[in-house]
Amino acid sequence: MYMKQNKLTNKKIIVTGASSGIGEQIARHVALNGGIPILLARSKEKLDNLQHSIKRDYHINSPVYQINLIDIQEVKKLADRIIKEQEQVHGLINNAGLGYFKYIIDTSWQETEEMLFLNVNSVIKLTQLFLPHFIEHGQGHIINIASQAGKIATPKSAVYAATKHAVIGYTNGLRLETKAHHVYVTSINLGPVKTNFFRKADPEGNYQKSVEKYMLDPDYVAGRVVGVLFKRKREINLPVWMEMGSKLYQLFPGLMERLLKKQFNKK
Asked: Which residues form a coiled coil (predicted)?
């Protein structure tokens, strides 16, 4: 249970990948706390359904924008439109992402590009487009949803891990650059979460079955994410035990790879 935050009242927060999973729950938590989630995703039908649900449950009018974030040219047009229509945006949560859990030799170039374009390029592009807006207004918060995979790469997730490693590195550099401008930057590094992400990542369901008891609840994750909005927070790592493992891996990579060989190969 999360306490309502007055600091979110009437704040407009962009949420990418808002039509389901973590993004949908983040949007609901923003509205629960009096904020105005700006909903971005590919599925207009799902966005409209969420918009109506938020209006019914929280009496918040949440703007909807249909977009394929892989199309960078369309992203530029959409950012200009959002700023024109919304006048001031206060936060950007880069949540949209996808993965394919396959060996490198079995991963098509199209799948590789999809992960790179959505997980990395769209995050950087949206940030570049909205950062001047935040600096101009002297406030803003950029939250990037990364992954523990960005700290520990495992078999069948080399490209996905590379994209999330890039997001973590980008987020860290961005945070240092924006500190003087009163723009907060936070990385959310997650283990596996119970969402439809795995429909593409793990269509046979083998990995999900092996880690089911460790999977995070998307509502809990969303509460943690929204809880740090407009606070100076470097990163959130969930679950905590997985973050401890990543720290040990940085110190003793060879040993950890030997000890955790079975766990690393669960995909």
From this structure: none
